[in-house]
Design goal:
mainly alpha, five-stranded mixed sheet, about 65% helix, globular
Length: about 575
């Protein structure tokens, strides 16, 4: 059935038994509850010390402590020259009040998650005009598999920031391209600043910067030739100032910092079969939250088949909307057409109505293209083949594209005309089935992730016991494996300083060089090893070969070797 341009129609997916005002209140309340549920679920995980912390996150915590004390102001994650330390600067005020605390380190990442959900909701409403569909997107973002909550909560560098940043870029691009008359220069400045900031923080977001930037250029290239372009450029320089300042101070090409992230680990390339398996089969369900902790069962791999189809459908429907000058849905934009009609100049009103639909189509197409580019780049990388489970975090930005990927399914499932005819009815049933399976799969993965919380709490209790034992023994300097060292140093607020050793007792990779020097200058540093580890075996051999050289203190989960004399 035909839709008349400029006339408001109620979202086809909304219940029709209630008056319009009651439906609006209902969807608003349900959306608010979904947001609160998502935040509450993650806050509960944090209270249980889940997901488990590690030495990489502790490295960011040490940077935050140094910033809070005015001791150091690092540009990059310690031990490398890429991945900016924005999370450390966000956490520094919290740690200045709380001291070294994983919860204090993660409170800013929890706030970033809440911001992401709100921005994603607003973006979905902008792009589709359907608040019930926006509710579905919020529900999916409220759920959280093991991989998803790790990406969103662990302050390990880059991942918690990318979701809200990409959503903000898309939302700002929509408002600028649709011709919002107010606060245009601040919006240009905001887009430039966020884009520049994220180039410093993590280059994984670049497909979304490029996609939304292309939409801005396509719709507003004339405006960009004036004050808007200057404002955007200056704001981008401010956002990327840490990267540029470091490059000026060291004489290093600023692009080398961005390229370093992509080339890191390239010394051990994976085969193409492994890359395709990890990138295209395991990557989509792991990276988008449909898998159990640390593995994907065969039945959970169905999303790997669905995602390419959704990418094609999303691109086709977005392109159709862009070419037709409408949203492709027939839905109104929350009264924006009516607001435009109240403008004095009717020609401007018509232009704004046309721009709304074309911009929505263009941005949905940009989000689909960014998702495809992200998936392709990950599949081409050796990380997809070597460590597909852990490296699926590189696909975290795909969640930003959910509105564009799921919109064709929602429209097919809820449109008044989609279910008619021999072809329409099976299409509607299939669309409903895929949406239901997505929610159910994400829900099951969330249930499995929540089940790991008791183990995380027990592991944190064992680590707290290690800290207390070392303090009781008066140990100030230790040597341990990589995944023990910085976590121990952060937990003690640097009261205990740890240097990394490899399994053969040779010096390992210390991200913060002063710790190595402090331990080397100590008279008799202790050793800490995990029971059954190669490091513990080597130290046990030393005790047998040189009786009386070491005293052993064992606690649950750790072995402490104390030199005598």
């Amino acid at each position: 059935m035909a839709m008349t341009a400029g006339v408001r129609h109620e979202p086809t997916g909304a219940p029709r038994a209630l008056p319009a005002s009651a439906r609006a209140r209902l969807v608003g309340v349900l959306t608010a509850l979904a947001v609160l549920a998502g935040v509450g679920y993650r806050l509960t995980l944090l209270a249980w010390h889940a997901p488990p912390t590690n030495s990489d996150e502790a490295t960011m915590g040490l940077a935050a402590l140094h910033i809070a004390r005015g001791q150091d102001f690092p540009v990059w994650f310690y031990g490398q020259t890429y991945m900016g330390t924005l999370e450390a600067y966000l956490a520094a005020p919290v740690l200045a009040l709380t001291g070294p605390s994983v919860l204090g380190l993660r409170l800013p990442t929890l706030a970033l998650y809440a911001l992401f959900v709100l921005l994603a909701w607003r973006l979905t409403v902008r792009l589709t005009g359907d608040r019930w569909f926006a509710l579905l997107v919020v529900v999916l973002l409220a759920l959280g598999s093991d991989r998803i909550v790790k990406n969103q909560l662990i302050a390990g560098g880059g991942y918690p920031e990318m979701g809200p940043a990409a959503a903000a870029l898309a939302l700002l691009a929509y408002d600028l391209c649709a011709g919002r008359p107010r606060r245009r220069l601040p919006r240009w400045a905001a887009w430039g600043f966020v884009a520049g900031l994220m180039v410093w923080v993590d280059p994984l977001i670049l497909p979304y910067v490029a996609g939304t930037g292309a939409v801005l250029l396509g719709f507003r290239w004339r405006e960009l030739r004036g004050r808007a372009g200057v404002t955007l450029g200056l704001a981008a320089l401010v956002g990327a100032a840490p990267l540029l300042g470091h490059s000026l101070a060291t004489g290093r090409n600023p692009l080398s910092a961005v390229l370093a992230a992509a080339s890191s680990g390239a010394a051990a390339p994976a085969g193409w079969a492994d890359r395709l398996h990890g990138g295209l089969l395991l990557g989509p369900p792991l990276g988008m939250g449909l898998c159990s902790p640390s593995h994907c069962a065969t039945w959970q791999l169905w999303w790997a088949l669905a995602l390419p189809v959704l990418l094609v459908l999303g691109a086709v429907t977005a392109w159709t909307a862009l070419r037709a000058g409408s949203s492709g849905s027939g839905h109104a934009r929350d009264g924006r057409a009516g607001a435009a009609l109240r403008l004095a100049d009717g020609r401007v009103a018509g232009a704004l109505r046309l721009a709304d639909g074309r911009v929505a189509g263009a941005l949905r197409l940009a989000l689909v293209a960014a998702a495809a580019a992200t998936l392709a780049a990950y599949t081409l990388s050796s990380a997809a083949g070597r460590t597909p489970v852990e490296s699926s975090r590189y696909l975290s930005c795909l969640l930003v594209s959910l509105p564009a990927l799921l919109w064709p399914l929602w429209h097919a499932a809820t449109s008044r005309t989609a279910g008619r005819g021999a072809v329409g009815r099976p299409t509607t049933v299939l669309a409903v089935a895929v949406l239901a399976a997505t929610v159910a799969g994400s829900g099951y993965a969330t249930y499995r992730a929540a089940g790991t919380a008791p183990a995380a709490r027990a592991a944190e209790a064992r680590h707290a016991d290690l800290v207390d034992t070392l303090r009781t023994l008066g140990v100030r300097h230790v040597q341990a494996g990589y995944w023990t060292c910085n976590r121990l140093t952060f937990a003690t607020g640097e009261d205990v300083v740890c240097a990394v050793v490899d399994d053969d007792l040779s010096p390992g990779f210390d991200r913060y060089a002063p710790y190595r020097r402090a331990v080397a200058a100590a008279a008799a540093p202790a050793w800490v090893a995990l029971p059954g580890s190669p490091l513990a075996s080597r130290l046990d051999d030393r005790m047998r070969s040189a009786p009386g050289s070491l005293d052993l203190v064992t606690i649950d989960g750790y072995r402490i070797y104390l030199p005598r004399g």
